[in-house]
Amino acid sequence: MTSHVETTLALKAEAQELHFYYGGTVQALKGISLGLADRRATALIGPSGCGKTTYLRCLNRMHDLYPGNRYEGAVLLYPDRLNIVDQTVDPIEIRMRVGMVFQKPNPFPKSIYENVAYGLRIRGTTKRSELDGAVEQALRNAALWTEVKDRLHDLAFNLSGGQQQRLCIARALATGPEMLLFDEPTSALDPTATARIEELVTELKQKVTIVIVTHNMQQAARVSDYTAFMYEGRLVEFDRTEKIFTNPSNKLTEEYVTGRFG
Amino acid sequence: MQRHIDLELADLRAQILRMGALVEEQIEGSIKALVDRDVDLASRIIERDTLVNNLDVEVDENCMRLLALQAPTAGDLRFVTTAMKISTELERMSDLAENICERVIELNEEPQLKPYIDIPRMANWTMRMVRECLDAFVRSDAVLARKVCADDDFVDNLTHQLFRELLSFMIENPGTITRAIRLTFIGKYIERIADHATNVSELVIYMVEGKIIRHLAPPALSDKNS
Predict the structure, then answer these.
(1) Which pTM does this prediction carry?
(2) Is B2 in CB contact (< 8 Å) with chain A?
(3) Residues 6 or more apart from A258 whose CB is under 8 A from it?
(4) Helix B74-107 and helix B4-35, axial crossing angle in degrees, nearest 10
(5) pLDDT score for A65
């Protein structure tokens, strides 16, 4: 399969022959080579167990949290060509540059303000005015500011599900990441909250590279510029989203996007 | 895996075929009305155009519903959008059959100008193109669709031939001008029907191969890998 789509766009990250093993034995990724265009949204689609979430989690070393997991190959983060999966590279540094938003909103049991300020505090920012400014900016970028500006010190759990998810996006944005990873960000939300998150993704990609894993094919079609279809740990097809949904090259992709399997 | 959308797409295909069959009857009837100088038949065909118009609307509504509710993608999406466009092409063909009948009624006010030879030949050729472009749609047959595109040249040539012949009548005897012009129109209508059959074939090629060949020069059209 060709992973190189005709594009003049710069890449933000690029997997090169990436293999991944869970617990050292189960191979979940079998040689993925996939470039992610800078300040564009790339959707990862495929049936359950195809490796899309595994791939996403490689991009900020989420798998390091469990023992025995093993990476082979490389994931280069541009422009400095830092190999994300190189074990000598500090995952904390990676996660500052590559943020993640999960399936279910998972705010910390703290106030709205402290949730957003958290990443900055552990980075050593203590100055109140600096924190205030950064928190406001992150909340604005996550389209949440006007809804929470009068209750910044309320507990984050008092927000609705959709607001909590946007809070998690603000939290991820606060450290100024270059790339944001979304793992099924709207699967626990209602259609209105989903639409807001999708709008937000469309806005955010002007500044940040977005990678989104979704089971909702229409969501992938709506928000992404590029789509990668994965199956059984391999990349089957990668192309412009428009091409994948109107005229995919691979028969397996066609069958998946038309709902014949998966 | 049998999908619900497959049943819906099969219904849509059947709807297009019903419309196609009706349009073929309209074209065939209009030529018969010309050759037989049958004003009653011509009038019936003009009335029957409404049925085709209604089917056009039904196909459109069905496609809109499918797009909204089933959100088809890839091959399914190309099928639905192609069906929508084919319906418009068929509706135009039926309009042209109606136009032929209008000229037939006018022509019957005067004696027949000449024996009709080329017009029925053109019409037969055109009707085959219409039938084949619909077969190509139903069977997703891009090879047959390309053949229909190529066949259009024959109809174009006959149209020119017919025009030259009628021109000679008009030069010789200005008293024939009204009838000759009406027959020229009929030739043009048939030629347009063949053009619509070509359009349908081009749409079928898009549906099958995902490649837009409309508005391309003929060599690109015949080259499969262009």
Answers:
(1) 0.82
(2) no
(3) B3, B5, B72, B73, B74, B75, B76
(4) 20
(5) 84
